[in-house]
């Protein structure tokens, strides 16, 4: 399966150093697992650009909002659903 690479995620996050690589790798795995569950199937191989973009959006959200509680309200990004809905299995709709 073609997964989002650490370098892709670091580029997306604009992270230049290596200090957070282990954490980012964990976020990639979590995001890909969530996307696969949302799609109702394994991630497509090769991963279409919209699915890859949704994984990166989720990685970015998890990276920026790593605390359970914050000082501002968080809202769901509808772009995630717009990117993934065409790839959802009919079984999960």
TrEMBL record:
Gene3D superfamilies: Phage gp6-like head-tail connector protein
Entry-linked InterPro entries: Phage_gp6-like_head-tail, Phage_HK97_gp6-like
Name the UniProt record assigns to this protein: Gp6-like head-tail connector protein
């Amino acid at each position: 399966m073609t997964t989002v690479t650490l370098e892709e995620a670091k580029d997306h996050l604009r992270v230049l150093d290596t200090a957070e690589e282990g954490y980012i790798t964990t976020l990639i795995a979590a995001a890909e697992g969530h996307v696969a569950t949302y799609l109702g199937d394994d991630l497509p191989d090769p991963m279409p650009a919209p699915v890859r973009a949704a994984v990166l959006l989720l990685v970015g959200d998890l990276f920026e909002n790593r605390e359970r509680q914050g000082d501002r309200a968080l809202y769901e990004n509808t772009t995630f659903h717009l990117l993934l809905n065409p790839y959802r299995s009919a079984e999960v709709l």
